[in-house]
Amino acid sequence: MSSQQHAATGRQRLFVAVLPPAGAVAELRAAVVPLRALPGARSLRWTGEAGWHFTLAFLGEVDEALLPDLYARLERAAHRSEPFPLRVHGGGRFDGRVLWAGAAGALDALRLLAERAHAAARRAGVPMEEHRAYAPHLTLARSRTDVDLHPFTGALEGFGGTAWEVDSLSLVRSNLPVSGVPGEQPRYEVVRAWPLGR
Ligand code: 3AM
């Protein structure tokens, strides 16, 4: 979506996420290369590594009038959480539709940060869906139809990335494609990021 459209609609599609650093992305990229050569890989829509993230809370279309309060509350949520270690580890799937890489490390801290981000958005007036059990995942590929993702999750089983220190919380805008080209991906843009801890 262009900035002109943002101005016209006064709404932005947003989510809160933890972004892996370049080193973690490079390791995961190397692990994903053989997956993309597996039978059936071509029928999946693979996410671009520039947009790889662990979603903490999906906010949907947010009225821009809510943004100042949302920023303030997310900043406070970030300050309440101390930095914690995380690494990309293994993988899984949501049915036959979504293939993802998993996480290991201080998952309780990640979960707590997700809860705080969710609560911050709700208190800022964003109509949030009920907070479901948080499943840490980094989406690698999606399918429009149910497919057997076991070969892909199996290939990811042994993968364990190097840990890094999660030290910031990011608010990301998802610019949906307007080209009409089938399979085109949304473009993600970090709107703001706040450091964890004090
Ligand atoms: O990359 P992941 O899978 O973590 O799936 C969407 C993506 O998450 C998710 O928000 C992230 C950025 O688009 N998403 C999109 N629509 C959603 C919805 N209605 C949603 N999550 C929950 N409810």
Account of the protein in words:
The protein has five helices and nine strands, in the order αβαββαββαβαβββ. It has 198 residues and is of the alpha+beta class. The protein has one domain: Cyclic Phosphodiesterase, Chain: A, CATH 3.90.1140.10. Strand 4 and strand 5 form a beta hairpin. Helix 2 packs across helix 5 and helix 3 runs antiparallel to helix 4. The longest helix is centred in the middle third of the chain and has 17 residues. The N and C termini lie far apart (35 Å). The model has no long low-confidence stretch (mean pLDDT 94). The chain binds ligand 3AM. The site of ligand 3AM has 5 residues, from strand 3.
List keywords for this structure.
198 residues; 4-stranded antiparallel beta sheet; Cyclic Phosphodiesterase, Chain: A; alpha+beta
- Binned, the helix content reads 25-40%
* CATH secondary-structure class: Alpha Beta
Write out the strand line-up for the largest beta sheet, numbering strands in chain order.
Answer: 2-6-5-4-7
Number of helices: 5
| Mean model confidence by pLDDT | 94
Ligand species: ligand 3AM
Q: Under the CATH scheme, which architecture would be assigned?
A: Alpha-Beta Complex
CATH superfamily: Cyclic phosphodiesterase
* DSSP E strands, number: 9
Shape: globular
Number of domains: 1
Radius of gyration: 17 Å
Structural class: alpha+beta
Structure, briefly:
With 198 residues, the chain is α+β, with helices and mostly antiparallel strands.
Helix-strand layout with pairing:
Blueprint: H1 3-9, E1 11-18, H2 22-35, E2 45-46, E3 54-63, H3 67-80, E4 84-94, E5 98-105, H4 107-123, E6 138-142, H5 150-156, E7 164-166, E8 168-175, E9 187-195
Antiparallel strand pairs: 1-3, 1-8, 2-6, 4-5, 4-7, 5-6, 8-9
Bound molecules: ligand 3AM.
Ligand 3AM is lined by residues 15, 55, 58, 139, 174.
